[in-house]
């Protein structure tokens, strides 16, 4: 996969994209990440990318001309990308959306700044995403978060492919609780079943714990999670779900 990111501060991507899982995945050729400075597509001596909004108001908006020129040039190089913008008005980014993006050959992320972009810029987008109901200084953090979530799903990105399959939201539920050594710490003990060596019992405990954690922390997920009638009955009997 090729990931292109357009920003007025492209230098912010380097440290994160070179570290940990993403860094290893890049070096292994799982994906290629390229950051582009939007100012490269400006034509005045000040390399201006923003201007005051029509109608007045605080702050500055990103001008359409550099964005259009940039996206059109990059999109014409190689495989056609799925072009993604970020905005609080976009659809909420979820694990399902990450899977959609992971199926693409190439992604082109356009990161806004200031008070946002001229509305006409969004006509270039194949998708507009939001991380949630809050506002960031720019789209770069959103871009890194989305890239991280997508790359983890690519074959070869993780040392153990089961990691991506068993994490939170992979089956519609939050992930079960996990523990490591020591088995007892400050009076808190690891559940005995996890020390039993009985894989069937461990799997059953993990599934039930995922159900309980989801019911307690994100009950909204249960409406669409693939749970059995027996599991639903268990949650009802436990007072974690209404009958």
Automatic annotation (TrEMBL):
<feature type="binding site">
    <location>
        <position position="112"/>
    </location>
    <ligand>
        <name>S-adenosyl-L-methionine</name>
    </ligand>
</feature>
<keyword id="KW-0963">Cytoplasm</keyword>
<dbReference type="InterPro" id="IPR016009">
    <property type="entry name" value="tRNA_MeTrfase_TRMD/TRM10"/>
</dbReference>
<feature type="binding site">
    <location>
        <begin position="131"/>
        <end position="136"/>
    </location>
    <ligand>
        <name>S-adenosyl-L-methionine</name>
    </ligand>
</feature>
<comment type="similarity">
    <text>Belongs to the RNA methyltransferase TrmD family.</text>
</comment>
<keyword id="KW-0949">S-adenosyl-L-methionine</keyword>
<keyword id="KW-0808">Transferase</keyword>
<dbReference type="InterPro" id="IPR029028">
    <property type="entry name" value="Alpha/beta_knot_MTases"/>
</dbReference>
<dbReference type="Pfam" id="PF01746">
    <property type="entry name" value="tRNA_m1G_MT"/>
</dbReference>
<dbReference type="GO" id="GO:0052906">
    <property type="term" value="F:tRNA (guanine(37)-N1)-methyltransferase activity"/>
</dbReference>
<dbReference type="GO" id="GO:0002939">
    <property type="term" value="P:tRNA N1-guanine methylation"/>
</dbReference>
<dbReference type="InterPro" id="IPR023148">
    <property type="entry name" value="tRNA_m1G_MeTrfase_C_sf"/>
</dbReference>
<protein>
    <recommendedName>
        <fullName>tRNA (guanine-N(1)-)-methyltransferase</fullName>
        <ecNumber>2.1.1.228</ecNumber>
    </recommendedName>
</protein>
<comment type="subunit">
    <text>Homodimer.</text>
</comment>
<keyword id="KW-0489">Methyltransferase</keyword>
<keyword id="KW-0819">tRNA processing</keyword>
<dbReference type="GO" id="GO:0005829">
    <property type="term" value="C:cytosol"/>
</dbReference>
<comment type="function">
    <text>Specifically methylates guanosine-37 in various tRNAs.</text>
</comment>
<feature type="domain" description="tRNA methyltransferase TRMD/TRM10-type">
    <location>
        <begin position="1"/>
        <end position="222"/>
    </location>
</feature>
<dbReference type="InterPro" id="IPR002649">
    <property type="entry name" value="tRNA_m1G_MeTrfase_TrmD"/>
</dbReference>
<dbReference type="InterPro" id="IPR029026">
    <property type="entry name" value="tRNA_m1G_MTases_N"/>
</dbReference>
């Amino acid at each position: 996969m090729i990931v292109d990111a357009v920003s007025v501060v492209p230098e912010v991507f380097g440290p994160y994209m070179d570290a940990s899982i993403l860094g290893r995945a890049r070096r292994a050729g799982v994906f290629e990440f390229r950051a582009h400075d939007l100012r490269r597509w400006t034509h005045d001596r000040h390399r201006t990318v923003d201007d005051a909004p029509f109608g007045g108001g605080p702050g500055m908006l990103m001008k359409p001309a550099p964005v259009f020129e940039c996206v059109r040039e990059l999109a014409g190089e190689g495989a056609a990308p799925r072009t993604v913008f970020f905005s609080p008005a976009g659809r909420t980014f979820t694990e399902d959306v990450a899977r959609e993006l992971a199926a693409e050959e190439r992604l082109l992320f356009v990161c806004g700044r200031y008070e946002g972009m001229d509305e006409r810029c969004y006509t270039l987008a194949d998708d507009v995403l939001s991380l949630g109901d809050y506002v960031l200084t720019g789209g770069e953090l959103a871009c890194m978060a989305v890239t991280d979530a997508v790359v983890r799903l690519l074959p070869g990105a993780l040392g153990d492919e089961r990691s991506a399959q068993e994490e939170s939201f992979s089956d519609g539920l939050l992930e079960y609780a996990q523990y490591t050594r020591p088995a007892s710490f400050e009076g808190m003990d690891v559940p005995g079943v996890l020390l039993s060596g009985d894989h069937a019992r461990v799997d059953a405990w993990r599934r039930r714990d995922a159900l309980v954690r989801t019911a307690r922390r994100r009950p909204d997920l249960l409406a669409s999670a693939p749970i059995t009638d027996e599991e639903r009955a268990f949650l009802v009997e436990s007072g974690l779900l209404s009958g």
